[in-house]
Amino acid sequence: MFRQLFDDATSTFTYLIADEQTGSALLIDPVHEQFDRDRLVLEELGLTLKYVLETHVHADHITGGGRLRHELGAEFIVGAGTGLTCADRLIADGETLSMDGITIQAFATPGHTDGCTSYLWQDRLFTGDTILINACGRTDFQQGSAENLYRSIHRLLALPDETLIYPGHDYNGHRVSCVGQEKAINPYVAGIDQPAFVAKMAALNLPKPRRIDVAVPANSLCGGADVARGEGETETAPAKAS
Amino acid sequence: MFRQLFDDATSTFTYLIADEQTGSALLIDPVHEQFDRDRLVLEELGLTLKYVLETHVHADHITGGGRLRHELGAEFIVGAGTGLTCADRLIADGETLSMDGITIQAFATPGHTDGCTSYLWQDRLFTGDTILINACGRTDFQQGSAENLYRSIHRLLALPDETLIYPGHDYNGHRVSCVGQEKAINPYVAGIDQPAFVAKMAALNLPKPRRIDVAVPANSLCGGADVARGEGETETAPAKAS
């Protein structure tokens, strides 16, 4: 079972993957403000949330993982490169998460941040901000590295052309792509070698993300300071912070 | 097992679906000139071609189904609305094709032509020329009807948002979309009611397809007159015709 959810305020995709036989579910990149939506979807589908997977420490939104972990008992999983001591599991490159009939493979894809991780389920790749549709994540904060991002993008694009790409965001109404499409027409990929990519990224000159000063500290604590300390009211910490 | 193949000359997608356990395979919308490619792919993957499914009687290319049927023994299946007496099976709206562990459901989707059929496999919808990515099929020949096409498009777009859309063609490098994306940004769908759609289609004023006078007669004979009569050399009939 698969659902693609969207947060309008931050243009963030959240993905639900569940085993229909057992009802076990995981969420990739939930958004704090969408906790009620996510809980309702789980309830309506009769699912039990087992895991929250984060593609990285987000700068544009606070993860819903803190509250989902605290209230629904989900385990919080993030890439080993983040070094987040608050996580239940740090998943390293090549490691897999098994949940009943579902297997998720982790790809360490540093570049947008140094702890970025992409997740492969069957032929569906969840790229976070490593590959966006016709675009890619920026590299000008959080240990961003255009050289690393170039390598990570091309490592993922070595998967079969049919591999579906589900990004962490889209700002133009797109929802899904595939490796073949991104290789053919993504302007950060097609005909762009590493020096050209690095130069292109350096020239972007983007404004600072509006929520970065709130989101990165909260996400570095797996969704909120209270949650990280195990003290309780996850609802209030990120809400106050924002 | 799933493969998306592309014919550069006519920008046509051919889809391969196979059961990995048994090796049984089907092709959707093969192209005559790509017979060798298709046979090679089947051989390399160790597959046996059981069925060729056509989304419609194409005007822009000759189906590979004639030769695949003759040389590889595949059954030729096309929508009941085509009335093609040369077919092995005319599949009607709501009917399914079962091939080992694979089930394909047919949706009669008249509009681009009156015999157009879309095929649903799991959450993957093969729309032929009914829905293209950011576009749709034209309605100015082969019993085309903008009124019917509008109904067919919206019937398909009533499927869940995550349903993947694999079109019959793309001219801009796109390969895959989904129901949610097409509802959001396809300019023939988003914010377009039926009268606006009909007016938009009537104003297109497109040139006549280059191959229509060859392709439609050949495809109306399931890929070639020789094949339809069972007389033999499928290789030459379409080649001569083009």
TrEMBL record, chains A, B:
GO biological process: glutathione metabolic process; hydrogen sulfide metabolic process
Alphabetical UniProt keywords: Hydrolase, Metal-binding
Keyword presence, Hydrolase: yes
A Gene Ontology molecular function term of the record: hydrolase activity
Location of the Metallo-beta-lactamase domain: 11-169
Source taxon at top rank: Bacteria
The keyword Metal-binding is assigned to this record: yes
CDD domains associated with the record: POD-like_MBL-fold
Pfam annotation, one family: Lactamase_B
InterPro entries, sorted: Metallo-B-lactamas (IPR001279), Mito_Persulfide_Diox (IPR051682), POD-like_MBL-fold (IPR044528), RibonucZ/Hydroxyglut_hydro (IPR036866)
Protein name: Zn-dependent hydrolase
Organism: Halothiobacillus diazotrophicus
